[in-house]
Amino acid sequence: GSNDTSTVNVNNSADLGITKSASVSPVVVGAAYNWEVVVRNHGPMPVLIGQTITVTETIPVGMQVNSAISNANWTCSGTYASGPNSGNAVTYPTSGDSVTLVCTHTRSGSNNSNLAKDANAPTLMIPVTNTAAGNLSNTACLALSGAGPVEAGDTGAGFERNCHTTGITGT
pLDDT by residue (tens digit) across 26-62? Predict the structure, then answer.
């Protein structure tokens, strides 16, 4: 008899990408606006119910977070990354020192179940105000956890970026 073999490539990944932008242009010192952070699943697998998308956002010195964030099924906590309160939990509005925000979004039946290929998670809105003029740059990075597909990574081999840095000039 003949012995036939075949190879199957199994892909168990969801290639997530992240973008962010300011809700206004130009940004004016002292005027409130939102950082709009969008996580998109580029597939091939969906993000499953029970999996958690985590966005870690670094807010620079010269920008304050105006209020606690809990919108569109995102929940955030923050710590000061610089200044006299470094390492302590933030209070709102923040002091204008650097802040690290960790925001999570867990897929559930209440937020449309699985996050399909070519679909966006709900937009994460971070309410901020520039407290200083000049160019400020901040970075948001993502991760995926929980039972299900793994995040494809940021290998540069055709995968979406897992971190996004945006500069903004306050006038």
Answer: 889 999 999 999 999 998 889 999 999 999 999 999 9
- Which conformational region is residue 96 in: left (phi greater than 0), alpha (psi within -120 to 50 degrees), or beta? left
Where residue 108 falls among pLDDT bands split at 50, 70, 90? confident
Q: Cα 87 to chain center, whole Å?
A: 21
Phi/psi for 156 (5° steps) reads: 80, 0
Q: Examine the pLDDT at 72 and tell me if it is beyond 90.
A: no
Q: Residue 89: how many CB atoms within 10 A of its CB?
A: 9
Cis peptide before 84 (omega within 30 of 0): no
CB 1 within 8 A of CB 35: no
Query: Residue 170: what pLDDT?
Result: 60
**Do the beta carbons of residue 127 and residue 78 sit within 8 Å?**
no
For residue 26, count other CB atoms closer than 10 A to its CB: 10
CB 100 within 8 A of CB 79: yes
Instruction: Give the per-residue SS3 of 37-106.
Output: EEEEEEEECCECCCCEEEEEEEECCCEEECCCCCCCCCEEEEEECCCCCCCCECCCCCCCCCEEEEEEEE
